[in-house]
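Supplementary Methods. Inverse-folding protocol.

Structures were first reduced to a discrete structure-token string of length 94. This string, shown here, constituted the complete conditioning input.
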């Protein structure tokens, strides 16, 4: 049962409990409506608990062994030669 079903049960139970004034032999419609409303409230609670269930385990997005491979520290050595980044379709300057 999802949230919509719980809300629908609460609404139907409220209509039966408070708006219907007919009588049936041996059946109390107010009690039936309240029972249906309680079922809807339980359905709302249950769907909330399922949607917000906490997991016991922590999820590792990046394994520590992989994370160690990528560092942000600068290299110990500097680049000795310059790199030409001029696009190939442009003439190079002398």
């Amino acid at each position: 049962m999802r949230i919509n079903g719980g809300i629908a049960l609460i609404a139907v139970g409220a209509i039966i409990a408070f708006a219907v004034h007919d009588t049936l032999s041996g059946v109390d419609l107010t009690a039936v409506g309240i029972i249906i409303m309680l079922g809807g409230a339980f359905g709302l609670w249950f769907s909330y608990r399922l949607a917000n269930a906490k997991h016991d385990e922590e999820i590792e997005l990046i394994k520590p062994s992989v994370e160690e491979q990528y560092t942000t520290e600068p290299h110990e050595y500097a680049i000795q030669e310059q790199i030409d980044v001029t696009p190939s379709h442009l003439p190079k300057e002398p």
